[in-house]
């Protein structure tokens, strides 16, 4: 399968997010891929914009089955969330469970204004009533397929497909 | 009843025999060794091919818990355990409830033991009334009732004047005084050797000096009073060395080590294993090695089981709140064999430490199979391993540091006074 | 010997002692705790990790302070918390520790936080509970207080991130201190090259060097050029008697004052597990001074305990 170039998709995603940032929205990336994307979007935007990251480990719904992730990064929301419009950035939108966890965590920081979801790729397979308003690309995949966003040592992002055995 | 024990490897250290010999038993006695007496028609034959035929074991310290602690063990259960372990004679310490400080209690104990027709029981009387360390017991009367010596067990005896008088009085009659060397102040509240493991686990320690200070007191008084002393459960390297020197000076002193201490160290406590809560505490590797050296050069005369059956509840608590002690009668033989194997001690010499030597210390006619001797016999398989499990133990006490391990040395037949009292 | 704290896969099952825990697990706890520090600063100081779980704080030895920190930690993880102070009088009615624990398991407790006056009590309970139950040692006799040891190294790491380049002194009653033992194990496991203990001989265990520490009896020599000074609490009952002649003499020889602290490195930090005996082991000027990190220790203690609880609750393999 030919995967699109992640770097190209980022440009498209940044273009779509730009109007929201112009209206004063803050960026929140979901650790780790979404956080990379949020950083890149901030850079492409070129102006100062509030940027936060969420590590949703404490909010996962599969904790009782798989335990705590061994490497958790602290969540960091260095601005007041109260009434603030937020663009939540994720790399690959799949079941929607990650976004559910991220929104729960986000709300523990305060009551945000409008929350918009931006995903680099929507691969389908939703298990929750969650949709992204901004999508870089739609790539329908089978359940056993896994799509990951990778970052090399130069900071270049790329998509990689894994077939589960 | 006539019994022939044939084809076995007879090991009788006292008579210098280690060879395949048949043993002939009649009317409770050994009637012949080697060639059959004329007209000997056995009622039963024991085929001891590939097995060892030895005198029944003699244990210088086994708590039977009666009277007073029947919830821990009974005469019946423990004497049953004794013969299952090949032990046919044992000395029991006086720390029962009531304490063995009156002739009537001693006679009763001996009488009840005799009715059970299992191992022979030799009570050790209390050195002071109620083991309170204040007043002397009627040692002469107690000896007549059957006491083979007088002990203060692990009860406090801090008044050295009382100790000195007890030794003087006992030596007047030639009685042996049995003493556990442990300074009551230094050992107070302690539950483990005051060493690396206690430091790590935060357990209150009993320093080696608790033993050596008490030992110095005992040896000094023994020298002064001329009393014959048996030192119970030596556990430290320094203690062994003091005894070695005392023996070289010609002091009438004997000593034993507990089978557990010949094998285990403080490290076996691991993560607070209460099975290893023993008294005296398991000490360092160096101490254990010194005990082995002491056995090798006869500074230590015998190995004993220090059989102390403890009820399960008493072990079911954090380490420091548990009761010290372990069941031992059924492990005396396998642990002695293990020691012999690990130290390359010949089997005959090893068995002497649990047969003829303890019999000599107790002053009883046992621990050998001379013609005419009481037929107390242990027939065992030195190669057969068995797993130390609760179900495998006859003792009511199921606690031992060796629980779950496999040890070589399985008793197949035990005879007491010519009768088979155990068979497996 | 199997480490009773670990599952077959080498994951943390109970937290009973720092000793025997691999460095990777210590670091996992400390790293996870970093994430929990931020939680306390948010609008909602709670995460849903232990929702539906019941944590029982069983304190056979009273300690309001320690119990409170565990209670807050459990509540910030959304667990239900039951506090039980079992005084010795109800114990003497014949109810054993295991009876107490079994009762709570019958009420579907999931995790036990145990404080007991006997060394090995938490090990004992961990050995006897059902496989799905998790046990945290909140102090057993003189043996261990692992969460205190962890929060101490967490605090040190925050102020002195390069653990491989530190000189640390632990001052006071090491003999009776579970805190000292846990601190020593945590520091040596994390690779601190020089850990000193400073105390009179009556307050040091036999063979203490075997724990991997250097022994000092003179505080002035022991504090020289250290990066961290960790004070220990001196229990009241030990101040007079055969261990020490008096609290005054102890303060003179082993109390931390500004003058003595000046021997340490200028940026040295001062720690104390609390509660402090001001004027006995530590002078108020030091306790409240610029180099003191005693209050941050308390704050981080919550995060560390949250980390331990959530890691244990997540390791469901039995």
Whole-angstrom Rg of chain A: 15 Å
What is the straight-line distance between the termini of chain C?
18 Å
Strand sequence of the main sheet of chain A, in spatial order?
Answer: 2-1-3-4-5
What quaternary form is this?
heterotrimer
Q: Could you state the order of secondary-structure elements of chain A as H and E?
A: HEHEHEHEEEE
H-E string of chain C: HEHEHHEHEHEHEEHEHHEHH
CATH architecture of the largest domain in chain C: 3-Layer(aba) Sandwich
How many runs of DSSP E, i.e. beta strands of chain A? 7
| Fraction of residues in helix of chain C | 25-40%
| CATH class call of chain A | Alpha Beta
Largest sheet of chain C: 5 strands, parallel
User: What is the helical fraction of chain A, as a range of percent?
Assistant: 25-40%
| Molecular shape of chain A | globular
| Approximate shape of chain C | globular
Class of secondary structure makeup of chain C: alpha/beta
Q: In the CATH scheme, what's the topology name of chain A?
A: Rossmann fold
What's the Cα radius of gyration of chain C? 19 Å
Low-pLDDT runs of 5+ residues of chain A are none
Task: Describe the secondary-structure layout.
The complex is a heterotrimer of chains A (165), B (424) and C (318).
Chain A (H helix, E strand, L loop, with lengths): L5 H17 L3 E5 L2 H13 L5 E4 L8 H4 L19 E8 L3 H11 L7 E8 L11 E5 L6 E7 L5 E7 L2
Parallel strand pairs in A: 1-2, 1-3, 3-4, 4-5
Antiparallel strand pairs in A: 6-7
Chain B lengths: L1 E5 L2 E4 L4 E4 L2 E4 L2 E5 L10 E4 L4 E4 L1 E3 L15 H10 L2 E6 L10 H14 L3 E4 L1 E2 L12 H7 L4 E2 L8 H13 L3 E4 L4 H4 L4 E2 L2 H6 L3 E2 L1 H18 L2 E4 L5 H12 L4 E6 H5 L21 H12 L5 E3 L7 H4 L16 H12 L3 H6 L3 H7 L14 E11 L18 E11 L2 E5 L1
Parallel strand pairs in B: 1-6, 2-7, 8-9, 9-10, 11-12, 12-13, 13-16, 14-15, 16-17, 17-18
Antiparallel strand pairs in B: 1-4, 2-3, 4-5, 7-19, 19-20, 20-21
Helix pairs in contact in B: 2-3, 4-7, 7-8, 8-10
Chain C lengths: L22 H17 L14 E6 L4 H13 L3 E6 L2 H4 L5 H10 L4 E6 L4 H8 L5 E7 L5 H14 L7 E5 L6 H12 L4 E5 L15 E3 L2 H5 L4 E4 L15 H8 L3 H4 L7 E3 L12 H4 L6 H21 L4
Parallel strand pairs in C: 1-2, 1-3, 3-4, 5-6, 5-8, 6-7, 8-9
GO molecular function (chain A): uracil phosphoribosyltransferase activity
InterPro entries (chain A): PRTase-like (IPR029057), PRTase_dom (IPR000836), PyrR_bifunctional (IPR050137)
Pfam families (chain A): Pribosyltran
């Amino acid at each position: 399968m030919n995967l699109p170039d992640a770097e190209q998709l980022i440009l498209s995603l940044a273009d779509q997010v730009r109007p929201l940032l112009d209206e004063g929205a803050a960026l929140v990336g979901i650790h780790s891929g979404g956080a990379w994307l949020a950083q890149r979007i901030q850079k492409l935007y070129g102006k100062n914009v509030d940027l936060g990251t969420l590590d949703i480990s404490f909010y996962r719904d599969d904790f009782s089955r798989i335990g705590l992730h061994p490497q958790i990064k602290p969540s960091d929301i260095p601005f007041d969330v109260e009434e603030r419009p937020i663009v939540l950035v994720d790399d690959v939108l799949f079941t929607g469970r990650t976004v559910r966890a991220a929104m729960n965590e986000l709300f523990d920081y305060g009551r945000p204004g409008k929350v918009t979801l931006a995903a680099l790729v929507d691969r389908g397979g939703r298990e929750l009533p969650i949709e992204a308003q901004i999508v870089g690309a739609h790539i329908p995949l089978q359940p056993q397929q896994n799509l990951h966003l990778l970052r090399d040592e130069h900071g270049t992002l790329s998509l990689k497909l894994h077939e589960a055995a | 009843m006539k019994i022939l024990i044939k084809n076995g490897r007879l090991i009788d250290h006292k008579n210098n025999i280690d060879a395949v010999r048949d043993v002939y038993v009649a009317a409770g006695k050994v009637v012949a060794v080697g060639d059959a007496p004329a007209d000997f028609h056995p009622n039963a034959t024991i085929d001891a091919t590939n097995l060892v035929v030895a005198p029944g074991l003699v244990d210088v310290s086994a708590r039977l818990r009666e009277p007073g602690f029947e919830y821990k063990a009974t005469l019946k259960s423990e004497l049953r355990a004794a013969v299952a372990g090949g032990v046919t004679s044992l000395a029991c310490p006086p720390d029962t409830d009531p304490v063995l400080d009156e002739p009537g209690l001693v006679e009763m104990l001996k009488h009840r033991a005799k009715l059970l027709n299992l191992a022979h029981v030799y009570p050790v009387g209390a050195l002071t009334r109620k083991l309170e360390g204040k007043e002397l017991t009627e040692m002469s009367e107690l000896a007549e009732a059957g006491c083979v010596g007088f002990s203060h067990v692990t009860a406090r005896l801090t008044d050295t004047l009382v100790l000195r008088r007890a030794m003087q009085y006992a030596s007047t009659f030639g009685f042996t005084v049995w003493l556990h060397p442990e300074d009551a102040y230094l050992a107070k509240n302690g539950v483990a050797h005051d060493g690396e493991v206690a430091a790590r686990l935060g357990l209150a320690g009993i320093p080696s000096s608790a033993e050596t200070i008490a030992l110095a007191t005992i040896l000094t008084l023994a020298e002064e009073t001329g009393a014959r002393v048996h030192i119970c459960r030596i556990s430290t390297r320094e203690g062994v060395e003091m005894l070695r020197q005392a023996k070289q000076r010609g002091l009438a002193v004997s000593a034993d080590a507990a089978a557990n201490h010949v094998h285990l160290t403080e490290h076996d406590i691991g993560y607070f294993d209460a099975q290893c809560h023993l008294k005296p505490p398991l000490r360092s590797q160096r101490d254990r090695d010194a005990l082995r050296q002491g056995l090798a050069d006869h500074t230590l005369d015998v190995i004993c089981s220090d059989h102390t059956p403890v009820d399960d509840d008493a072990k079911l608590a954090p380490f420091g709140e548990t009761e010290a002690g372990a069941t031992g009668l059924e492990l005396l033989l396998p642990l002695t064999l293990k020691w012999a194997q690990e130290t390359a001690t010949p089997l005959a010499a090893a068995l002497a430490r649990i047969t003829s030597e303890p019999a000599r210390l107790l002053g009883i006619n046992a621990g050998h199979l001379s013609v005419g001797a009481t037929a107390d016999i242990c027939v065992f398989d030195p190669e057969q391993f068995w797993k130390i499990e609760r179900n495998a133990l006859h003792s009511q006490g199921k606690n031992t540091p060796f629980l779950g391990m496999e040890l070589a040395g399985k008793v197949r037949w035990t005879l007491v006074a010519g009768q088979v009292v155990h068979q497996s | 010997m199997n480490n009773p704290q670990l599952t077959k896969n080498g994951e943390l099952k109970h937290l009973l002692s720092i000793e025997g825990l691999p460095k990777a697990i210590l670091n996992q706890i400390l790293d996870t705790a970093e994430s929990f520090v931020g939680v306390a600063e948010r609008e909602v100081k709670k995460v849903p990790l232990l929702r539906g779980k019941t944590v029982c704080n069983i304190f056979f030895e009273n300690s309001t302070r320690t119990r409170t920190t565990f209670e807050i930690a459990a509540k910030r993880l959304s667990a239900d918390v039951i506090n039980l102070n079992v005084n010795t009088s109800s114990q003497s009615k014949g109810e054993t520790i295991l009876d107490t624990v079994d009762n709570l398991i019958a009420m579907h407790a999931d995790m036990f936080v145990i404080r007991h006056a006997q060394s090995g009590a938490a090990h004992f309970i961990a050995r006897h509970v059902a496989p799905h139950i998790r046990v945290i040692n909140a102090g057993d006799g003189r043996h261990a207080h692992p969460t205190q040891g962890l929060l101490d190294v967490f605090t040190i790491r925050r102020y002195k991130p390069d653990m491989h380049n530190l000189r640390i002194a632990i001052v006071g009653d090491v003999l009776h201190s579970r805190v000292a033992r846990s601190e020593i194990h945590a520091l040596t496991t994390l690779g601190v090259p020089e850990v000193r203990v400073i105390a009179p001989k009556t307050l040091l265990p036999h063979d203490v060097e075997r724990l991997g520490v250097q022994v000092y009896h003179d505080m002035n020599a022991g504090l020289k050029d250290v990066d961290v000074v960790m004070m220990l609490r001196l229990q009241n009952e030990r101040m007079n008697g055969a261990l020490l002649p008096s609290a005054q003499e102890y303060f003179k020889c082993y109390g931390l004052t500004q003058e003595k602290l000046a021997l340490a490195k200028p940026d040295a930090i001062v720690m104390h597990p609390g509660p402090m005996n001001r004027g006995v082991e530590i002078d108020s000027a030091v306790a409240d001074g610029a180099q003191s990190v005693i209050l941050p220790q308390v704050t981080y203690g919550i995060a560390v305990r949250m980390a331990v609880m959530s890691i244990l609750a997540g390791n469901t393999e039995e």
